[in-house]
């Protein structure tokens, strides 16, 4: 099983073994909204045991600094 590529801090890329569409899922755009971060972490756990078949999947947390401070935006 392929390991994800860390393309930026808190952004992982999973590549399928065949060509296909690219999908990006971004959670944590606002630091005080935790559901998106929980979804990203759940998907990463799922992908630890199941490979992307086709295309590319990018998973990222958009505003990590604000999330750590539980604030809507970083600043």
Keywords:
four-stranded mixed β-sheet; 2 helices; alpha+beta
What does this structure look like?
This protein has 75 residues and is an alpha+beta fold. It has a domain at 23-66. The chain is 25% helix and 36% strand. It is built from two helices and four strands. The chain has helices at residues 35-47, 64-69; strands spanning 5-8, 11-15, 18-27, 54-61. A four-stranded mixed beta sheet has the order 1-2-4-3, with helices on one face. It starts with a strand and ends in a 6-residue tail after the last helix. 13% of the residues are buried.
Coarse shape: elongated
Oligomer: single chain
The Rg value, from CA coordinates, equals: 13 Å
Which series of helices and strands comes N to C?
Answer: EEEHEH
| Residue-averaged pLDDT | 90
Cα end-to-end separation: 39 Å
Helix content: 25-40%
- Characterize the largest beta sheet: strand count, sense, and whether it forms a barrel: 4 strands, mixed
The assigned structural class equals alpha+beta
Number of helices: 2
Strand order of the largest sheet: 1-2-4-3
Instruction: Give the tally of β-strands.
Output: 4
Which helices and strands appear, and what pairs or packs with what?
Blueprint: E1 5-8, E2 11-15, E3 18-27, H1 35-47, E4 54-61, H2 64-69
Parallel strand pairs: 3-4
Antiparallel strand pairs: 1-2, 2-4
In short:
With 75 residues, the chain is of the alpha+beta class. It contains two helices and four strands, in the order E-E-E-H-E-H.
């Amino acid at each position: 099983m392929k390991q994800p590529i860390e393309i930026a801090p808190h952004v992982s890329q999973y590549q399928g073994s065949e060509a296909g569409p690219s999908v990006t899922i971004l959670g944590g755009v606002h630091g005080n909204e935790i559901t998106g971060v929980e979804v990203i972490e759940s998907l990463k756990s799922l992908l630890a045991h199941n490979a992307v078949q086709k295309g590319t999947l990018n998973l990222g947390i958009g505003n990590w600094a604000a999330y750590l401070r539980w604030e809507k935006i970083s600043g």
